[in-house]
Amino acid sequence: MKTFRHILSIAFPVCAIGLAWAVPSLQAQGAAGGQGGRLSAGDTIDIRVYRHDDLGGKLTLGADGTVGLQFVGPVKLQGLTAEQARQKIEALLADGWLRKPQVTVNITDFAKNFITVDGQVNRPNGFSVARNKPFTVTQAIGMAGGFNTRANKKAVILKRGNKTFTINVKAIYEDPSQDMPLQDGDVLLVPQAVL
To answer: Which of 122, 138, 151, 162 could pair with 145 as two cysteines, CB 3.0-4.6 Å apart?
Structure first.
């Protein structure tokens, strides 16, 4: 009986190691799917195809939201989560190319938005922020060190392309539901308060 228990204590960890080796992508697939971010042009992803290292690698989604894959060609992944992208690539590879492909897709870098904050803030500057999460007016002002003592918090100017908006940031501080998400290329200009 003692010998049987000894054999089990050795065999079980060896089996567990064998299973972990046989399906290396399960943990990574779960992590990728859990990120919740949707892919867009400029995002960088890492695609791995189990036992076919030449079929994957780090790829950046083009302006049309696609990546080029060997055997398959251009694949549109824009708007998909990493988990949905994994499923799509597996289906395409299984369609006459590979038998039961195991694919992992991890987002390694989201494309960036560039926001500029200038005027009466403590650290006027331009900031690169990931596109996958909303980045708001108050967050941008916070990254710029907050308002200085001369700032007019009620008349912050947002320049977006050829349009201009006036934002009452003081009101946003009182009611955060009014905070506004920024877009790539937006410029916030904090004017000086009139004394």
So the answer is: 122
